[in-house]
Amino acid sequence: MNKKLILLITLILLTLPFYGIRAQPTHFDVISSAWGTSSNPVEAAPGDLNVPLTISIQYFGYYMATSVRAKLLLPSNFSNAVGMEEPTAIAVNVQPNTIFSLTYYLNISPNATIGKHTFTAKIMWNTTWEYNMIEQVNFTVSLKGKVTLNFEPSNIYLSPGQFNTITFKVENPGDGEARNLNINVLSPAQTIVDKPSQTIDKVEPHSKTNFTLNVYIASSLAGQPITIMLTGGYRDAYLTQRSFSQSIGFLVNPVEMAMFKISCDKVYLEVGEANLVKVLLENLGKTPLKNMTLSVSTSQFLSIIEGDGKMFLGTLQPQDKVETLLKIYVSPTSQTSSTITFTVTYYDTSGAIKSENRYLTFLLNTTTWVSPISINVNPTTLVAGKLNDIEVLLTNTGDTTIKRLSITFSFSSSQVTWLTPDMFKAEKISPGETVTIKGRAYNPPTATTSTIMQMNIKYYDEGGNLYQESRSVGMLSQGIIELKVVDTTILPEKPSPGQIFSITITITNVGTITASSVSALPQLPEGFRMFGAKSVFVGDMQVNVPTTFTLSIQALNTTRPQKYNIPITVTYYDNLRELHSFNLDLTVDVQEKNVVTTTTAAVGKVLNLSSLILPIVFGLVLFVTGYIIGKRAKR
């Protein structure tokens, strides 16, 4: 009885799950849906193609679903991206009360509306107990659109040397809403952004908003293009964090050129007097000249008095003008004109400091004046690489006495150095008197071919007026070229008539400069001729560099055996292109040809070794036989 009861209870317990399955109202539920995949969410918008849609399904069955096949029934404006049939996804071995994901690839029509759309998942599955089970689950999918951000500046032209206010228009032409927009501004070197980070709460679809930047542009960027980069992030309509980056080019305006004019109320200056000159400066441009400073510098005959020649003029507005006064003294001179340099320093609109020089020439009211000093220099050619003694003859050709004369000497070329005297002084030079100045200068080996000896002369006339003169004398620089024969070789040493022989000569330039276009021309006596060219071009001979050249000469068959003198003329140019020559005398000993006797061995005198073999063998046999017989006789 007890066994029957236990069996009945066991049978009832085993059949209870089947009744529970049939009574269960649903086995699947779509708990979430999202565009994209779990690792790569996407912004789905009308018109997108091949967009992944991932749905998460929870299985409520009692037994493991060995295979699940979910076909997606699509609403209008949605279609399968991989075929004409309804999109289908498969899952296997789904445990009870677990969540699994299925991904479909869909095309979204451009006519699809933003909002929620109802999808139906037709699920067919098998379990470990039942087969071919079907269930449909409805769920909604949100289509929120895509965010498209575009930044556009209000002006792409910036001014250098100041802060520029730039208003950026932020436009979202997309279908999705952008939230929590963070903007970072990256600007190039020599620029400053006052607020490099900006925040915008949201940008609605098909709407615009603005933000403002203040950017300082250095004056050194004037006339150049620059690039400002906007980077950052936002949350799209699906609340997914997104990033963006956009480079925007700007052009920095060039600084407008300042235009001003300097003029004076006088053209002529009186010699020996203090002249009052009014200087007028006009701003002809369209921009102000800020913190202007005017500096005046004169030549050696003009002097600024009652001031240092530097004036502060302040700021000069466009089309404005300013005046200042100068008192200029002109010392006695023979010059008919002199130039004054006006240096204007100011700040332009970019804040950069600028400086410009303007030159005004004044005519000097003076009688024709002839210098009373006559100068003669000897020599006028300096030798390179040596100390040169120079004699300067200074004669007073005037009618009055020259007093307190002083002269300093220099050369226009920095290579030539004036050594002594540092300054020549003479208390007075009477009319017709000549003063001799003995000087010394060093001319280096590498000096140029010409230079100018300059003399600055100061003296007073009988009235106490100071005179200053600058005199110059042109001088040539001639280098030293000295050629020496280092070695000569004649091969063969004693040629014979009809034979070609060579003369090899090694020459070294022991001078101070290069010998240019060196060539050798032998003066051949009768009975000889050049083999090849009549002369040899050697080229340039550097200092202390041995140079070798070879002459090929033939002694004719009619040349008599004796010693001959062959002169060779070596020509070259110095640094002044003057032609010089250098003569060599070489002696060539021509001898008769040597008689060569050839001896031929007579026939039959050749030693034949084969004829001696037989007698030698025979003798050895006889020697051995006699030796053996002798040994036996002793025994």
Counted by DSSP, the helix tally is: 2
Distance from N terminus to C terminus (CA atoms, Å) equals: 148 Å
Global Rg: 57 Å
The whole-number mean of residue pLDDT values reads: 84
- Strand fraction equals over 45%
CATH homologous superfamily descriptor of the largest domain: Immunoglobulins
Q: Give the name of the CATH architecture of the largest domain.
A: Sandwich
| Principal-axis shape | flat
Most strands sheet: 5 strands, mixed
Binned, the helix content reads under 10%
Q: How many distinct folded domains?
A: 5
Instruction: Tell me the structural class.
Output: mainly beta
**What is the number of strand segments?**
43
Q: Order of strands in the sheet with the most strands?
A: 10-17-16-12-14
| Overall CATH class of the largest domain | Mainly Beta
CATH topology of the largest domain: Immunoglobulin-like
Show unreliable segments.
Answer: 14-23, 595-612
